[in-house]
Amino acid sequence: MSTSDDTADASDYETESVGVLVIGAGAAGARAAIELAERGVTDQLVLGKRGHGDAHTTWARGGINGALGTHDPDDDWAIHAADTLQEGHFVNDPGKVETVTRAMPEHLRELDDWGMDFSRTDDGEIDQRYFGAQSFRRTAFAGDHTGESLLDTLVARAQSLSVPYRENLMVTKLVADGDEVYGAVAVDLDTGQPTLIEASQVVLAAGGYAAIYDRHTSRDDENNGDGPALALDAGASLMDTEFVQFHPTGMAVDESDPEWEPWRGRLVTEAVRGEGGRLYNAEGERFMERYSPDQMELDARDVVARAIAQEVREGRGTENGGVYLDISHRERSFVRERLPRMYERFQELGVDLSEEPVEVAPTAHYGMGGVAVDDHGETDVDGLFAIGETMAGVHGANRLGGNSLAETLAFGAVAGEQIAARDPEPGTVPSTLRDSLVEPHITGLSTLANSSGDYTPREVLSDLQTLMWEHAGLLRDGDQLRAGLEQLEAVRNAADDMAVGPLGSRSFEFAIDVGFSLTVAETVLRGALDREESRGAHYRTDFPERDPEWRQNIHYHAADVGVTTTTEAVGEPSEAVQAALDEGHELDYHQLE
User: For 431-543, CATH number?
Assistant: First the structure.
């Protein structure tokens, strides 16, 4: 790349034009691309920040929901919707919930037809297991590697349809004028080459934002808020980002042990509890009997996570700040068959999961909020869609386990159908936007690359993650949140003083991630401060009760400095779903025993 005074020529970039650009090659992006291809849209391109098939989807292990009724024929889509709304504490978008729950039985059968390696009953049906807060066994699974098997299946299907894709491209900016989207700027992480991809329709399927927290289940280079931050910058609004799910069972490890430290916060799948795993404190008490005697370890994730935090806070935690998860009462053959990846992981670390307990503690896992979209996944910027964990609306204040993969399929298909109906033409970026937005942005990327400063991007990101864990974590209060917003400015200042490597380097990548993470972190802090109640995963110790007046969604809008917020009332469920709510279905944990 040519340079002048250490700054690249802004005209030195590649240009490619397609009808549809899909940003993100996980389950949501893959399913959208498949729908487009099956409806005759060949002029599309899927971009992945990593190698093809290497997406966060593979870390979703426990299962995917759909009311097949394999074991429980009384289950149906409306009860699934009712469970989802209850788990979301009724700030979900009821229409989006219904879109997912109605579609999922057929999507599971579709995956079966495409060759997904589902675990099976003795009769050869798709097996289903219990998952937290679900009235029936509706979580289909492939051992404890469901996400991996799902993505393998989708990638194979996309390849059979000759869906074009490019690997190792990181999108740094959407090209939009606030009303309409025209494409995106990306950097090739192998070569450092900037690329302008023109597109008349853009699908953001770039994951969530849980990695803005210190202890999290994602890899360090994913779920940094890319999708929501890109959308906000393009003129779309965000919603519900104050709702962050802290999974009860991340790995609690001795951080001084180099063998265990990399696993800190990594997910111990809910499937362990779904197959009968039990939680004990350091005194040997099965403590969920105090907090949830009916649903026990399979109560809602926010309930179980807060119970663990309470046990630790009151001095009944383990040496590494957690509690024990124990499934040793099950036969080794059962554990190895139903939880093969978990068994192998701990065996490699010298622990036999079928013989001894493991230490677990809450860990940031999922952002229920994201980009505000309509019934088809489109934002208020024409042609810009957001799906999967990048979008908001399905999960409300707390996500039902097994619904994340379900959402990726349902809204991938919905968005793909909507876009295909438009018969998208190849995109063209207006010359005015090339001059005013694209070329200045590329110049800015080159200025960022090879810059000098007192901090590394990883240091700044780590400081931000610590700030979020301490000020907007599992338990929040107004003073903490206000202090967090004040400290956020110090992190922003450090971000302006980073030493960054060349275009495409890991240092450069993390520098871009810092910008995304700072944007979303501000929305989380502001929304958590605004919402003066406790609802689902958002728990305010100074407002510990749920307030009916706060049955609203908080929307976030880009301002000249930072973000502003507005609120909107939540819609009502359909008659069918309301009837299911009125019937009062509820999981009975003791069926497992």
Answer: 1.20.58.100
